[in-house]
């Protein structure tokens, strides 16, 4: 009777020691994918906010407006002069809008790739 109790304890300890690394990798991939999606969303929001400031004719010397403009210009990548309509506001709307859509699409694709690589659907 003592042998069976020891065998059960050993089996319980082995079960407790086993770590499902795939599940941990899937959780990590899910977290990383969420961070990528949030980053893309924040980047797009900054670009859209800049468009709102330009169309609404916000004071360019204001600290918030200049902060957003600095970040938006950095996130614009090669889209700054993609379209060149004569109207400045339309130019900002189109080019920064396309950049915002780019960030949303790229972050969604990257998040999906990360989730698949991590084993979580």
Give structural notes.
This protein is an all-alpha fold. The protein contains 4 helices and no strands. The protein has helices spanning 2-17, 21-55, 63-75, 88-118. Helix 2 (21-55) crosses helix 3 (63-75) and helix 2 (21-55) runs antiparallel to helix 4 (88-118). The relative contact order is 0.17.
Short overview:
With 121 residues, the chain is mainly α. The protein has four helices and no strands.
End-to-end distance, in Å?
A: 47 Å
- Give a short account of the largest sheet: none
Overall spatial form: elongated
> Into which percentage range does the β-strand content fall?
under 5%
Q: Would you spell out the secondary-structure blueprint of this structure?
A:
Layout (H helix, E strand, L loop, with lengths): L1 H16 L3 H35 L7 H13 L12 H31 L3
Helix pairs in contact: 2-3, 2-4
């Amino acid at each position: 009777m003592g042998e069976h109790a020891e065998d059960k304890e050993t089996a319980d300890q082995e079960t407790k020691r086993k770590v499902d690394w795939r599940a941990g990798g899937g959780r990590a991939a899910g977290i990383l994918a969420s961070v990528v999606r949030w980053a893309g969303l924040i980047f797009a929001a900054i670009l859209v906010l800049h468009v709102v400031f330009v169309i609404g004719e916000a004071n360019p010397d204001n600290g918030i407006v200049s902060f957003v403009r600095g970040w938006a210009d950095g996130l614009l990548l090669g889209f700054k002069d993609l379209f060149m309509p004569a109207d400045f506001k339309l130019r900002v709307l189109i080019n920064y809008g396309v950049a915002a859509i780019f960030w949303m699409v790229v972050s969604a694709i990257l998040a999906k790739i990360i989730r698949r690589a991590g084993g979580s659907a």
